[in-house]
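so my prof wants the structure for this chain in the tokens format not the other one, which i didnt know existed until like an hour ago. anyway here's the sequence
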Amino acid sequence: MRLSGYILVFTACLLWYVESCEPNQTQNGCKIYGSECLCGFGCKTEYVYRTRRACLSALRERSTNICYRQPCVRGICIQTVQEPGFACKCEGTGYYGQRCEKACPTIPVRGLVFPHECVVI
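here's what i got, hopefully its the right format
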């Protein structure tokens, strides 16, 4: 019984880390991740550059890279096409929120949904 509880918690945590999109909304492309370009296959809203060259060009032009302004208090900035144009990945920082600005709770607080960024596996 104890092992199945751990598996259930692990599976639930894993589901929070998986981002999905409709099959017709996927593409090969590149995204700005921190200060580098990462290329792969994923959602069009995340892999906004069709080629590595376009991604590197945007990275060089810094003014088009909202992540260059360092909007995340902590964590890693990822450029997106959806407003506000970036997402902060807070996992592993001990913080959560749009800009990783809120400290993870250390004790349960009534009425607070425990943020998935604060789950330690």
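also thought this was worth mentioning. The helical segments are 2-17, 52-60.
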